[in-house]
Amino acid sequence: MNREEILTRIAEETATCTKCDLHFSRKNSVPGSGPANAEIMFIGEGPGFHENEQGQPFVGAAGRFLDELLNNIGLSREQVFITNVVKCRPPGNRDPQPGELEACDSYLQRQIQTINPKVIVTLGRFSMHKFLPNAKISQAHGQAVRVKGRLVVPFYHPAAALHQPSLRPTVEADFARLPEWIDKAGDIPEYVEKVEPDQDEDKPEQLSLF
Ligand code: URA
Ligand code: SF4
Fold first, then answer.
1. Which of 31, 123, 192, 203 could pair covalently with 14 via S-S, beta carbons 3.0-4.6 A apart?
2. 111 CB within 6 A, ligand 2
3. How far, in Å, from the CA of 47 to the mean position of ligand 2?
4. Is 103 in the pocket of ligand 1 (CB under 6 A)?
5. pLDDT at 209 exceeding the cut of 50
6. Cβ-proximal residues to 128 (8 Å cutoff; 6+ apart), any chain
7. What is the DSSP letter of 209?
8. Which residue ranges form the domains of the chain, and what is each CATH number?
9. CB of 29 shorter than 6 A to ligand 2
10. Ligand 2 centroid vs 183 CA: distance in angstroms?
C-alpha cells in the first residue's frame, strides 16, 4: 500500500470504529484531510458540530480562522495535513476524556508515521499533551521543541482566540513565527522536561506516632 492508500484505510477504519463511546453520537467520523506527503501536520482537538456534519476537519468558525492564519503565512489548507486527537465529535463539544484519547491514539500515530511530517503543530492542550505531557500551554505556546527527533510547535487552539479575543494577537504572533521555526528545524534541541524541584524536599520528615 502507498501512503495515500494507508491514509484512506485509516479513514475508513474510523468511519466504522466503535473503540470508544464517541461513536454512538457521531454522524461522520473526521479522520483528517490533506496530502500524504505534507511537510506540516496540524493536530486539533476534536470535531465540532459542522465537522461532524461534513466529515471534514476545521470547517466551522475555528476553521475559517485557521485558514486565515495559514494564509497570513503563505500557506493554504491544501498544503498541510489537518487532523484531531479524537476523530469523532464529543457531544456538545465537551473535552475529550482520557479513555477516548487513548482509544483513538493509534489512528493518530499511524497518520504521523505514514505522513512523517517535518513539523507537527499542536492546536490546544489535548494535542500538545500528546508530545509534552506535563507542559502548560500558557508557557509552552509558540516555542518549537524537538520530541523524539521531530519538530513540534505547540499553539493555542484557534477557537480559544475566538472565545477570548485578548488571545488573538498571541495566536497570530505564534503563527507568524512558524516559517522561522521550520527554517531553523535542524537547530532545535531535543526537549528536556523541566522537573520542578520537590517542594517538600527540605521539610523534616514527619514523625510517626507509632
Ligand atoms: N476544533 C477542533 O479541534 N477540530 C476541528 O476539527 C474543529 C474545531
Ligand atoms: Fe473510534 Fe476514535 Fe471515534 Fe472513538 S473517537 S469511536 S476511538 S474513531
1. 31
2. no
3. 11
4. no
5. no
6. 122, 135, 137, 140, 154
7. -
8. 3-186 (3.40.470.10)
9. yes
10. 35
Ligand 1 near 58 CB (within 6 A) = yes
What is the Cα–Cα distance from 10 to 129, expressed in whole angstroms?
22
For atom 7 of ligand 1, the residue with the nearest CA is 58
The one-letter code for the residue type at 182 is I
- Of 48, 38, 172, 181, residue with least CA distance to 115: 38
pLDDT tens digit sequence for 95-108: 999 999 999 999 99
Q: Which ligand is nearest to the CA of 103?
A: 2
pTM over cut 0.85: yes
| Closest to 130 (Cα-Cα) out of 11, 3, 42 | 42
Q: In a 3-state reduction of DSSP, which class is residue 41?
A: strand
**What does each C-alpha distance from 175 to 21, 32, 79, 117 come to in angstroms?**
34, 20, 16, 17
Per DSSP, 101 falls in state H
Q: Residue type for 122, please? A: T
* Range from 114-118, 132-136, 148-152, 195-199 carrying the lowest mean pLDDT: 195-199
Q: At what angle do helices 98-115 and 3-15 cross, to 10 degrees?
A: 160
